Batch of 2 targets.
Target 1
Amino acid sequence: MLPPGSFEGRVAVITGGSSGIGETIARHLAALGATVVLLGRRPDALREVVASIREAGGSAAGFAADVRDRERVEAVLAEVVDRYGRIDHLVNNAAGNFRVAPEEMSPNAWNAVVRIVLDGSWHCTQTVGRHLIARGGGGSVVSIGTTPALFGDPDTAHSASAKAGVLAMTKSLAIAWGRHGIRLNVVTPGLTDDTGAVSQLFAAEGAYAANLEKIPVGRHANRDEIAEAVTYLLSDHAGYVTGQNLVIDGGRSLGIG
Ligand SMILES: CCCCCCCCCCC/C=C/C(=O)SCCNC(=O)CCNC(=O)[C@H](O)C(C)(C)COP(=O)(O)OP(=O)(O)OC[C@H]1O[C@@H](n2cnc3c(N)ncnc32)[C@H](O)[C@@H]1OP(=O)(O)O
Ligand SMILES: NC(=O)C1=CN([C@@H]2O[C@H](COP(=O)(O)OP(=O)(O)OC[C@H]3O[C@@H](n4cnc5c(N)ncnc54)[C@H](OP(=O)(O)O)[C@@H]3O)[C@@H](O)[C@H]2O)C=CC1
């Protein structure tokens, strides 16, 4: 979609870049010329994706990090700046989720998800934001949302609440950091094929098909469709777009709100 070379000379950090939607975002950014830096907990998964991006001619590196660990996030991002001289873009994609009734959710279960999604996005965004402000010249951040953050979902209250927080964080920082040339937006996908969400949340018999029936366009999203929206919002072509939430769900949530 974007012209080749749109991200030439740029460095983009993608959390959860070793699988699912994050992996596809990383591949798209690398194909457009960015050096992509992937964060995730499993070193083997990171190694595999980094090798495959390099084989395709891209520039990539992986760092094992749990985004809940503030010190580790700061250390890794400092190393990225040391190695490449800059960070221009951040994608807050790492997430955890599982279905559990709210009255049965343990404190630890709530914390596990909220700390990955909300705290993890905050750790990365504030650290990258401080770098961008100190360096000058601007940059951009895209965080991945979810439709339950907008309309609620009884079985994933932890995730919906944390993602609603990420949306509020995005709008708040878009106001605060606009004068530094830093833009922040959210992309909110509907159910996307070939991802952890499908295996984690829609594994029960009939669940995937039942969701499909409620989608006006008659299919689920594919990973490329989400990655293309993310690369657009990160790019200079979206230079006047900030604090926004782009919902890409085939019309699934129309009529709910
Ligand atoms: C308008 C509505 C339309 C709806 C249309 C739907 C649209 C699609 C929406 C899809 C949204 C998708 C969002 C996603 O984020 S999908 C991403 C899925 N990927 C992952 O989750 C991968 C990463 N996940 C994990 O690492 C783990 O699952 C976890 C989040 C749990 C974190 O791992 P960690 O090792 O840190 O945590 P623990 O295993 O130690 O567990 C911590 C506590 O959580 C409890 N727990 C874990 N799993 C469950 C479960 N399935 N049910 C209940 N409780 C669970 C665990 O027991 C621990 O608590 P306790 O110590 O109290 O036992
Ligand atoms: N797929 C879908 O249908 C939808 C997805 N979304 C959102 O899109 C994003 C991607 O989802 P999806 O592709 O399904 O996810 P996946 O489960 O496929 O991938 C999640 C990625 O996040 C990483 N990750 C998880 N926890 C942490 C952590 N604590 N620290 C660092 N990295 C972590 C995982 O790597 P590792 O395990 O090695 O740490 C993995 O690379 C998420 O934000 C999700 O909420 C929103 C709506 C729909």
Note: The pocket of NDP (ligand 2) is lined by residues 15-16, 18-22, 39-42, 45, 66-68, 93-96, 116, 120, 144, 146, 189, 191-192, 195-197 (CB under 6 Å).
Target 2
Amino acid sequence: MGTDLSLDPVRIGVVSISDRASSGVYEDKGIPALQDWLGRALHNPITWETRLIPDDQETISATLRTLVDEQACDLVLTTGGTGPAPRDVTPEATLAVADKVMPGFGEQMRAISLNFVPTAILSRQVAVIRGRALIINLPGQPKSIAETLQGLPQALPPVHGIFAAVPYCIDLIGGPYLETDATLCKAFRPKNAQRPARQG
Ligand SMILES: Nc1ncnc2c1ncn2[C@@H]1O[C@H](COP(=O)(O)OP(=O)(O)OP(=O)(O)O)[C@@H](O)[C@H]1O
Ligand SMILES: Nc1nc2c(c(=O)[nH]1)N[C@H]1C(S)=C(S)[C@@H](COP(=O)(O)O)O[C@H]1N2
């Protein structure tokens, strides 16, 4: 099933960080890939805030502050700028706006990505809490978006994507109750945090 209008609405910021896509050298595939995966994985009605920006640290931090403080996003996902190159500054820009650092997301994403590419360890991606929002960095390769969010749930043993932990994290910071499509990503919550299953 798709969107269920009876569920909590969620505001999601998607930020593509790329010098070349933002200057028109190539077409941005980061925002469409993020919206495609999240739109399929979440049943909640989504309001999007999209931004395509260059790899500039202050621009990235300012964008994240605006999305959380002014646009009231519950969740912000960035793509790009997490590697070791001189212009890759997304983790620094994200840490600069953090109230809390959530190291498990970066650790788990690098572990998941090793199932896809040996260069997974080159991503310095981080996740942080700012106010009542969760901000997560993803690598720039558009295919890495589904790889890290979804993992390989059908593999034996399964590789859990990081999105499984996102709904409960958002519960804990006071955000909307997110419901996911279990075939893409089964959200994990402790029993006492689960709402009764929806009818129909
Ligand atoms: N927003 C994007 N849209 C389409 N492809 C992208 C995007 N960002 C990255 N890629 C692809 O993934 C590769 C690795 O991404 P990375 O973020 O390292 O780019 P980059 O080499 O730093 O350059 P730029 O920041 O100008 O995209 C790029 O060379 C490009 O092929
Ligand atoms: N899942 C996944 N993770 C990945 C990749 C990928 O293709 N898939 N690319 C790696 C590579 S080649 C680099 S350089 C780093 C950083 O990428 P970024 O600078 O585009 O953010 O992410 C790594 N993590």
Note: The beta strands are 10-17, 46-53, 75-79, 100-101, 127-130, 133-138, 151-152, 159-160.
